[in-house]
Amino acid sequence: MYNILVLMKINEETKAAFREAAGDNKITFVNYGINDPVPAEVSELLKDADIVIGQPEAGALKAAENIKWLQSRFSGVDNYLAPGVLGDDVIITSATGAYGQSVAEHIFAMMLGIMKKLPFYRDNQMNSLWNDEGAGMSPEGKKVLIIGTGDLGSNFAVFCKAFGAHTIGVRRDPSKGAEGIDEMHGMDEIDELIKTADVVVTLLPHSEEMKGFFNYERFMSMKKDAIFINAGRGPIVDSDGLNRALSEGQLFGAALDTTAPEPLPADHPLWKQPRAIITPHVAGGDHIENTIIKVSNIAIRNLKAYLAGEPMINRKR
Q1: What whole-number distance in Å separates Cα of residue 34 and Cα of residue 44?
Q2: C-alpha 190: how far from its chain's center?
Q3: Which of 176, 207, 265, 281 has the most other CB atoms within 10 Å of its CB?
Q4: Are 195 and 168 in contact (CB under 8 A)?
Q5: How far is CA 140 from CA 17, 110, 165, 166, in A?
Q6: pLDDT along the chain (317 residues), means of 10
Q7: What's the sign of the alpha-carbon dihedral 26, 32, 34, 38?
Q8: What's the rounded Cα separation, in Å, for the pair 258 and 239?
Q9: How far apart are the C-alpha atoms of 230 and 152, rounded to whole Å?
Q10: How far apart are CA 78 and CA 72, in angstroms?
Q11: Which residues contact 282 (CB under 8 A, 6 or more apart)?
């Protein structure tokens, strides 16, 4: 019999679905969201857990001596794959496919906000100013370059096409298409593609080769009135280089949901950039109910597969 520990804030209906999937195995629920304090009992429960579903802190997993499988509630599992966190024989699966709607809606809102100059109008409102900030722009007819065309990028591309934009995707294997993408290119073409794009969106996972890729020189190679958005990993963007480019009048605007470091230091000049929108890594997470449902469905599907000895989806190791 397996001891299953579910660390997520879910409703009674979802708990019932987990219990049905678990069958005769013991299952324990601890309700807490991503930004909630970790309940004290979690470290004790981890000691006896064979299966953990949720997002425990990597350091806390040292107590999980019996763990055989971890189902992460996030798409990224780099922290669990780091040496020494879990034994090499522990299976790790992710929640890839659950966050596309949430992230796409968030970055689409950021893009429209910049196009319509909403940050300026919000600043004016705070100062009781009734000012016309001049011409904005529309997604219609714009070239939107999406670097990273998995679940997140594909969902965002569908939104853009609905507003009349032309979508250009970039992925490691350009022979593989994606919904919502009009044309696909390889990673080696990024430098040429960013020169003509009206909007550049990065949704890439962490990799050492992409660290600081979007630096001052690349921002300056983009169209002067282009929009830059990052909702991938923060280290992809050189924050100082972006601030310098914006300060020199380059780009129509920029939006960041992730930064490096994260959070930015309180005195970093990007906080004060009038043409920048910064949100605290909230595009995904628990911010819409549908995400929790999708994460739970992935976990339940994998739980059934694991107990039946069948292949699981989103397996990272």
Answers
A1: 19
A2: 20
A3: 281
A4: no
A5: 43, 16, 5, 8
A6: 96 97 97 79 93 92 94 92 93 96 98 98 97 98 97 97 98 96 98 98 91 97 98 96 98 97 96 97 91 96 98 97
A7: negative
A8: 10
A9: 12
A10: 11
A11: 106, 257
Cα–Cα distance, 234 to 29 (Å, whole number): 32
**Helix-helix angle 289-308:100-115, to 10 degrees:** 150
Query: Which residues, at least 6 apart from 205, have a Cβ–Cβ distance to it below 8 Å?
Result: 75, 76, 78, 148, 232, 233
Q: Is the dihedral of CA 278, 149, 104, 112 positive or negative?
A: positive
Q: How many residues does the chain have?
A: 317
Q: Quick one: pLDDT at residue 130?
A: 98
Which residues 6+ apart lie within 8 Å of 111 measured at CB? 139, 199, 201, 227, 229, 255
Q: How far apart are CA 304 and CA 217, in angstroms?
A: 50
Q: Which two tokens stand for residue 11?
A: 């409703």
Give the C-alpha separation, 127 to 124, whole Å: 5
User: pTM of the predicted model, to two decimals?
Assistant: 0.92
